[in-house]
Amino acid sequence: MQVAADDLIAVLRAKGLRLTAARRAICQVIADGHDEHLTSAGVHDAAQKIAKQAINPSTVYRTLEVFEQLGVVHHVHLGHGPGVIHLSESESHHHLTCDNCGSTIDVPAGALGGFFEELHASYGFTVNPSHFALGGYCRDCEHSGNLG
Questions:
Q1: How far apart are CA 46 and CA 31, in angstroms?
Q2: Nearest CA to 104 among 117, 116, 119, 93?
Q3: Are 27 and 12 in contact (CB under 8 A)?
Q4: Residue 131's closest CA among 68, 61, 77, 69?
Q5: What is the spatial distance between Cα 21 and Cα 11, in angstroms, rounded to a whole number?
Q6: Whole-prediction pTM value?
Q7: I need a labelling partner for 111 at 20 to 30 A (CA). Which of 17, 21, 57, 101 fits?
């Protein structure tokens, strides 16, 4: 089931935050982008268009921070670009990012489970991969031989 803007607004209301036009617009952008990896700058630009007013970037950052603290969104770094967020309602997954073309592949969490278990068994290290992507080369870049 997809999270609606009203669901996100209810989260902010329960947290005791003022529900300004800017925050309502931010909630709409996040809900509309439920399958996307959104940058804070992208959320800011889209929210300003929805609200039809200037929004201070710090309002976006603070609102996203509240959602992250409450587990509503996840913050991930995909390669060398800016961090992105996506709704936590999405199926748990990891990210593979091509170091050449920048494409991102979402991989179900279970697909890398054996790898993480092996790291733990061999090195006593528990990986927390939710915040960073694994870098490498996508199939297209590898087959083209055009690796930067």
A1: 12
A2: 93
A3: yes
A4: 77
A5: 15
A6: 0.79
A7: 101
Q: Between the ranges 39-48, 87-96, 106-115, where is the mean pLDDT highest?
A: 39-48
Helix (H), strand (E) at residue 6: helix 5-14
Do 138 and 103 contact (CB within 8 A), yes or no?
Answer: yes
* Superfamily (CATH H level) for 93-144: Ferric-uptake regulator, C-terminal dimerisarion domain (3.30.1490.190)
- How far apart, in whole angstroms, are the C-alpha atoms of residue 46 and residue 87? 17
- Say whether 144 sits in a helix, a strand or coil: helix
Confidence of residue 94 (pLDDT cuts 50, 70, 90): confident
Helices (H), 15-129: 21-32, 40-51, 57-69, 113-123
* pLDDT above 80 for 130: no
pLDDT at 19: 93
Query: Is CATH 1.10.10.10 what the domain over 5-87 is classified as, yes or no?
Result: yes
Element (H, E) at 142: helix 139-144
φ/ψ of residue 98, rounded to 5 = -75, 125
Q: What is the pLDDT of residues 64-91, one digit of tens each?
A: 999 999 889 988 888 777 888 888 766 6
Q: For the sheet containing 83-87, what is the strand order?
A: 38-39, 83-87, 73-77
